[in-house]
């Protein structure tokens, strides 16, 4: 067995992609959600850079969920997207997704993904990584076709795309780790869990 801890790993996330990444890596999983006020967490200590906002959110999700799982290692994760100084959140509607994609069209944006681990109410690990993604110039005709094909999925992610699905058609260049782009920097997490003795070395 690769997983050596006496209790399953807990993932505090609504993301099916993050859960699948950990399940595919062989982790015995328990799934929960951490209901936090994300905007309040981000602004608690004043304005923060997008990468640090992702880390703050990941840490808070792990900490809140760990209070319900004594003795477990609890993973929290989050992702932010920035185009220069402009931050983007999940679009609430198709029209908002379209506006967002038009703003990103032909540009290189930064996707910041953070992971944190808490145990017994204390955050014991945190890490953030950045990928840079360049969108090709998107025509109105293509945007309509993409939005029709992707449907409601465009409102479920910070960039109005899932790179592992139809979102791949938006891009001409990607610089960064695959798992970081999917929202869970996996290699730093695995290294931490090995140091903790939870994973076979």
From TrEMBL:
Subcellular compartments: Cytoplasm
Domain of life: Bacteria
InterPro entries with a match to the protein in the record: ITPase-like_fam (IPR029001), Maf-like (IPR003697)
EC number: 3.6.1.9
Main location: cytoplasm
Cofactor(s), names only, from the UniProt record: a divalent metal cation
Reaction equations catalysed: a ribonucleoside 5'-triphosphate + H2O = a ribonucleoside 5'-phosphate + diphosphate + H(+); a 2'-deoxyribonucleoside 5'-triphosphate + H2O = a 2'-deoxyribonucleoside 5'-phosphate + diphosphate + H(+)
Active site, per annotation: 78 (proton acceptor)
Record's keyword terms, sorted: Cytoplasm, Hydrolase, Nucleotide metabolism
Function: Nucleoside triphosphate pyrophosphatase. May have a dual role in cell division arrest and in preventing the incorporation of modified nucleotides into cellular nucleic acids.
Family listed: Belongs to the Maf family.
Name used for this protein in its record: Nucleoside triphosphate pyrophosphatase
Organism: Rhodoplanes tepidamans (Rhodoplanes cryptolactis)
